[in-house]
């Protein structure tokens, strides 16, 4: 569906396919789970995989043309515009266009 280069053979004899992507350029963000005043923003120990793009609307249109499905409409997340991309058999992954400085070119 995504047509991104990946390995699709599972590590076992199971019929499900694994999507194994080469990473890079990529970023890793370590975000606080609470503010300095104690306001809770998220659970400790949580993590999230996201796909970052330069133009969310054009990326959504391209992926939709390949059969991708999205949950809801794009929304302002505070750090960028994002939408949940449905990955068959794996749930959803955030697809977002960041408005924050990115580290990918460092």
Automatic annotation (TrEMBL):
Stored InterPro entries: Glyas_Bleomycin-R_OHBP_Dase
Family annotation (Gene3D superfamilies): 2,3-Dihydroxybiphenyl 1,2-Dioxygenase, domain 1
Name by which UniProt lists this protein: VOC domain-containing protein
Gene source species: Cellulomonas phragmiteti
Lineage summary: Bacteria, Bacillati, Actinomycetota, Actinomycetes, Micrococcales
